[in-house]
TrEMBL record:
PANTHER family, per the entry: D-ISOMER SPECIFIC 2-HYDROXYACID DEHYDROGENASE FAMILY PROTEIN (AFU_ORTHOLOGUE AFUA_6G10090)
Any single GO BP term: L-serine biosynthetic process
Pathways per UniProt: Amino-acid biosynthesis; L-serine biosynthesis; L-serine from 3-phospho-D-glycerate: step 1/3
Originating organism: Geobacillus genomosp. 3
This protein's record includes keyword Amino-acid biosynthesis: yes
Protein's recorded name: D-3-phosphoglycerate dehydrogenase
Cited InterPro entries: ACT-like_dom_sf (IPR045865), ACT_dom (IPR002912), ASB_dom_sf (IPR029009), D-2-hydroxyacid_DH (IPR050857), D-isomer_2_OHA_DH_cat_dom (IPR006139), D-isomer_DH_CS (IPR029753), D-isomer_DH_CS1 (IPR029752), D-isomer_DH_NAD-bd (IPR006140)
Extent of the signal sequence: none
Classification of source organism: Bacteria, Bacillati, Bacillota, Bacilli, Bacillales
Keyword Zinc-finger carried by entry: no
């Protein structure tokens, strides 16, 4: 049973696919109402109200996934989630149109002073001359951040006969041309626009993007719109520009602190506001809830999630192709880590044959996770493997080789430790399974499954019998046994697959057999 905590208001209809699953238990409560149960939840579903802090994640010890039914994830500590191997997903496009339409509605309301006029008429006044506005036709709209919402706002602006000047450092010329807008520097947009609307995420770079210095570069009489995130326009810095009339009006759907309380900006007649309503439509809420609910179902079924913030994107098609290699990678890492149970500095992974053409980032992350898992107490998975490796000073790299040595595909892992280097190579045989075909310089062939025993010995007659005797005396059944050697009479090895794990006494008894040099337990 998977327990899902839904801590913000999320569309009931969108959650329906989760409700129909017999394996999912949904609890709809605020975090503060379930303090005692926080450690029991596998998933957390939020909008922007719940703050998913490191402190909260610390308490949610069983948490595997955070779903954001919306776009902005600035309320989620992504680094803290990643560190704990918690997948973070969002619904990147379910509310785009609603947010763009709200932005446009705010912009129109701002220049025609609709909210002020509305309040006036409701107060039984009829003062037509007090609410003379401006037309949008022919005006220059400056769009800062030209992603999904910014571009939808621009389309609507063009339909209103506006010219659109865009600043987005990541926007290509081709895309801008296709959408009928022109790219400019930030300074040019600031200096030329009659109305400026911001549509970036809130990041270190965009916090305070419209602060004192940049506001001073805007045209006198400029209108500003922020339906993205509070803080992109610096609220404190804005006040003097409103006081001296440099800024003609501001429309805000979002605030640095939500709710803003008794904020000084609210006192200005030409500041119009809504309580973070950009995504608040029936349509958008159904879209985003359905998107995250479907992703959660995939996740719990062990399928890939497509809109993760902290995992490489993986479609179902690609996932199906890499699935076998993903498991092989994990086994290679796991076995190598136990064999090299010493500090290591570097892992080098080489892909050859058909696997080399696939999305190997994911396979490498799985291999890394397998390698790191026996070394760290907390969960290591594809989400946090790279971060954990970095923390432990382990570097890793991928190589691609044309040399297949007769295998249709192979993954080879070389681990560099202080005084030792170890290489293991595996292949996946369709409809048969994973095989380890090279182990520490010796060609061999065994399945990386279950309780394995590695024995390195001198190549002498009778070794197999001696090992069999010791295991038999301890009532340990051998399922399979593979032998390999570098050369006749030289270094040789056995890999045994056993029905149960061996204890220290058995290891000791095996080590005492003459000509046996090393014995290691390997769990795969
Ligand atoms: N008010 C509301 O209810 C809603 C607000 N939002 C917010 O709207 C914003 C935009 O969302 P989307 O368009 O979906 O995101 P997006 O990721 O599609 O677009 C963001 C764009 O900002 C650009 N960008 C990033 N850093 C920049 C910088 N320093 N300067 C200029 N451009 C920069 C990116 O290149 C990208 O094109 C986000 O902050 C999101 O949280 C989204 C939905 C509803
Ligand atoms: O999706 C976003 O980024 C939003 O800002 C919408 O926030 P909400 O889900 O309405 O709390």
């Amino acid at each position: 049973m998977f327990r899902v905590l839904v801590s913000d208001a999320i569309s009931e209809e969108g959650l329906a696919p989760l409700r129909t699953s017999a394996h999912i238990d949904i609890v709809q409560q605020k975090v503060s109402e379930v303090e005692e149960q926080l450690h029991t939840f596998d998933a957390l579903l939020v909008r922007s109200a719940t703050k998913v802090t490191e402190e909260l994640l610390e308490k949610m010890t069983n948490l595997k996934i955070v779903g954001r039914a919306g776009v902005g994830v600035d309320n989620i500590d992504i680094d803290a989630a990643t560190k704990r191997g918690i997948v973070v997903i969002n619904a990147p496009n379910g509310n785009t149109i609603s947010a763009a339409e709200h932005t446009f509605a705010m912009m129109a309301a701002l220049v025609r002073r609709i909210p002020q006029a509305h309040i006036s008429v409701k107060s039984r006044e009829w003062n037509r001359s007090a609410f003379v506005g401006n037309e949008l036709l022919g005006k220059k709209l400056g769009v800062i951040g030209f992603g999904r919402i910014g571009s939808e706002v621009a389309k609507r602006a063009r339909a209103f006969g506006m010219t659109v000047h865009v600043y987005d450092p990541f926007l290509t010329k081709e895309r801008a041309e296709k959408l009928g807008v022109s790219i400019h520097s930030l300074d040019d947009v600031l200096a030329s626009a009659d109305i400026i609307t911001v549509h970036t995420p809130l990041t270190k770079e965009t916090r305070g993007l419209l602060g004192t210095e940049n506001l001073a570069k805007t045209k006198k009489g400029v209108y500003l719109v922020n339906c993205a995130r509070g803080g992109i326009i610096d609220e404190q810095a804005l006040i003097p520009f409103l006081e001296n009339g440099h800024v003609a009006g501001v429309a805000l759907d979002v605030f640095e602190q939500e709710p803003p309380g008794d904020h000084p900006l609210l006192a200005f007649d030409n500041v119009i506001v809504t309580p973070h309503l950009g995504a608040s439509t029936v349509e958008a809420q159904l879209n985003v809830a359905t998107q995250v609910a479907e992703e959660l179902l995939h996740f719990f079924e062990g399928q890939p999630v497509t809109s993760s913030i902290n995992l490489p994107a993986l479609s179902k098609d690609v996932y199906e192709k890499i699935q076998s290699f993903y498991h092989l990678g994990r086994k290679l890492g796991l076995i190598a880590s136990q064999f090299m149970n010493i500090p290591v500095q570097e892992l080098s992974v080489t892909y050859a044959g058909t696997v080399a053409d696939l999305e190997t980032t994911y396979i490498t992350r799985s291999l890394l996770a397998g390698f790191l898992q026996p070394r760290v107490a907390s969960t290591v998975n594809e989400v946090n493997a790279a971060m954990v490796a970095k923390e432990r000073g382990i570097t890793y790299g991928e190589k691609f080789s044309d040399e297949t040595h007769g295998y249709a595909n192979s993954i080879s892992l070389t681990v560099h430790g202080e005084n030792k280097t170890f290489t293991i190579k595996g292949t996946h045989v369709p409809n048969y399974g994973d095989r380890i075909v090279h182990f520490d310089g010796v060609a061999i062939d065994f399945a990386p499954e279950g309780h394995l025993l590695y024995i390195q010995h001198q190549d002498r007659p009778g070794m197999i019998g001696k090992v069999g005797n010791v295991l038999g005396a301890h009532d340990i059944n051998i399922a399979t046994m593979q032998v390999g050697r570098q050369e006749a009479g030289g270094k040789a090895m056995m890999i045994l697959s056993l029905d149960k794990p061996v204890d220290d006494a058995v290891l000791k008894a095996l080590t005492q057999i003459a000509d046996i040099e090393t014995v290691k337990r390997l769990e795969a």
